[in-house]
Input
Amino acid sequence: MPVGPTHESDATECVAQLRAALAEHGITLPSLGSDHLTPPLVTLGNCNTATARALTTALRRAAGR
Output
């Protein structure tokens, strides 16, 4: 089943929103993107340990820990 424009645009929008939310915490995932498979997947890619720690800290703060 081919991926329709709605699925592709949804994945693209999801990536844009995630990129913006991470940027609010000073976090950049260089490989963040989407694969237009069925279903579309968001690829988080590789990051260095400093970025992984920053992401962990941001998530823990958001959870109130």
